[in-house]
Design brief:
Layout: H1 3-6, H2 13-30, H3 39-54, E1 60-65, E2 81-82, E3 89-98, H4 100-105, E4 111-118, E5 130-136, H5 150-160, E6 169-173, H6 179-187, E7 191-195, H7 199-207, E8 215-221, H8 222-232, E9 238-243, H9 248-256, E10 265-266, H10 267-270, E11 277-282, E12 293-295, E13 298-307, E14 312-321
Parallel strand pairs: 1-3, 6-7, 6-8
Antiparallel strand pairs: 1-2, 3-4, 4-11, 5-8, 5-9, 9-10, 11-13, 12-13, 13-14
Helix pairs in contact: 2-3, 7-8
Length: 326
């Protein structure tokens, strides 16, 4: 075997363009369940489709962030190996539907998501379900800090962006746990964008140029935080996370697995590699991506591929023959 063949293989752009087929498949298979009130059926359809397509891709992906432990999730569980087994070895985070409740209700911003990094570089936060996150665009780097009160961060970011505080928009999940946070945001003079679910799309918006959302804050899923980090560094933005265990037992499991409590994880600690990919396909319409559309014999999807190493963002619009998906 040649020296080149012995060298460590890293995920490249061709892998990302293969993986987008898996997010497209998940979104297409979940499409019939939009607005039907059955989030479990939608999720199962997406999981089955994503798993099937991942098996055709030439890589060895270790699921660091998946559908849960093996006993609870028969496919795409934490620790599962996916792919053909040949090609680059990667860490992979999968969320066949980010926003199952949105899908079941027919609401906006449901996505199918895959994030990839070099093997051994993705934070395994699976023992702690929740993470407190702060995400901004490039203007927030070295300006905002999750340790500071939200009002102070809003004022600092407004100054950095040369923008009136009254025009700043802060995205936050609409949950009782955020009542005080929402009040503080509004008292600062900024506006809120309250999310029913799906803070991945809002975080990407917050880090993107020209977006109406300036900051995404609050407690959401730690898996979503890890996947989002693969995109934020490529966009030049800021992401910080603090793990939020629900009880002492969960905290102890986190500590036993090597996680740090009461600690601010920076982007380079959440994903310790610049060679990252974030891939998402829209399931329902949203500000980030259009949802799946079917017209006659054609199914249309829109996806985004963000590459950390080059900082490139690609949008992929694909038309699929519906006869192939019956």
């Amino acid at each position: 075997m040649s020296e080149q063949e012995n060298a460590v293989q890293h995920p490249d752009r061709n892998l990302a363009l293969e993986l987008v087929r898996a997010t497209e498949a998940a979104a297409i298979r979940a499409f019939p369940f939009i607005g039907k009130g059955d989030k479990n059926a939608a999720d199962k359809a997406a999981v089955d489709a994503m798993r099937a397509f991942l098996g055709t891709v030439d890589f060895e992906g270790l699921v660091v962030i998946g559908e849960g432990e093996k006993d609870d999730a028969p496919m795409l569980f934490n620790g599962e190996l996916v792919g053909s087994g040949s090609g680059p070895k990667c860490d992979i985070a999968v969320d066949p539907i980010d926003g199952t409740s949105l899908t079941a209700a027919g609401r906006q911003n449901a996505l199918s998501v895959i994030a990839v990094s070099d093997r051994g570089t993705m934070l395994d936060a699976s023992q702690i379900f929740y993470m407190n996150k702060l995400v901004t665009g490039p203007e927030g780097v070295d300006v905002c800090d999750i340790r500071k009160p939200i009002g102070e961060n809003i004022r600092a970011l407004a100054k950095a962006k040369n923008k009136p505080i009254s025009e700043l928009v802060v995205a936050v999940l609409d949950r009782p746990r955020h009542d005080d946070l929402i009040r503080e945001i509004r008292e600062s003079g900024a506006g809120t964008r309250l999310l029913l679910d799906g803070d991945v799309a809002a975080s990407i918006h917050a880090a993107s140029s020209g977006s109406r959302i300036d900051i995404c804050v609050g407690i959401g899923g730690s898996p979503e935080g890890v996947a989002t980090a693969c995109a934020i560094s490529a966009l030049g933005g800021l992401i910080q996370g603090v793990l939020m265990p629900r009880d002492e037992q969960e905290a102890q499991r986190g500590v036993d697995s090597g996680l740090k409590m009461d600690y601010v994880y920076e982007a380079k600690e959440i994903v310790q590699s610049e060679n990252t990919f974030f891939i998402a396909t829209g399931l329902t319409d949203g500000g980030l991506l259009e949802g799946v559309r079917r017209k006659g014999s054609v199914i249309r999807t829109e996806s985004i591929v963000i590459r950390g190493r080059s900082g490139t963002i690609r949008r992929i619009v694909a038309e699929h023959q519906s006869s192939r998906w019956i």
